[in-house]
Amino acid sequence: MRRNILAAIMGLCGAVVAHAGPEPVILNNAENRYKWAVSLESAQMFNIDNNPNRYFFLTQMLSLDYEPFRALSLGPVRVRTQVRSTFFAAAIFNGPESFYLGWGPQLRFLIPIGDSPWSFFMGGGGGIGYADAHPSDKQDRGLGQCLTFIVLASGGIRYDISERWSVWTGIMWHHLSNANLSEPNKQNIGPDELGIVSGAALSF
Predict the structure, then answer these.
(1) Cβ within 8 Å of residue 28, ≥6 positions away
(2) Where are the domains of the chain?
(3) Domain 34-203 adopts which CATH fold?
């Protein structure tokens, strides 16, 4: 009788301890995960075309990200979608211009790797901005005018440190152009850049 009572007490204590202990969090399976995030990215972009200026961009991006949909399941693969509102600020080297400021919408797709905190990302978008170009200077071979458009794409790998914090690194490409609006007065020479991008996000 005493043994039965002791066993019952030990079983009850074990259940209480198990219930009170922290439960493991599988970040990529959480349906109630945070939908909003603020992210900051930095990219070092090198010229990859025949642009005579051999541009180098040091680009900073501040984004407000939102996940409007539930994860899409494609067999064993789950895809999350982020809609991003991104502000760009770039220091321009080796060219007539010295900076570019802009804004644009983006889409980013996150593909979790199983139930691990790792995932692949890919996405891109476009936008509009201002560069300190010199449209009246016929000698430089810059962007042609101050109003400038940007198209970009990126991809890489991401790691969720916790439910709130994430970091990532990958490759980014972007192209700046004035969409030939400066022609025929001045040639539109839009640089193509490729480089490494790294970032971090705080979800809320």
Answers:
(1) 78, 112, 114, 115, 116, 117, 119, 160
(2) 34-203
(3) Porin (2.40.160)
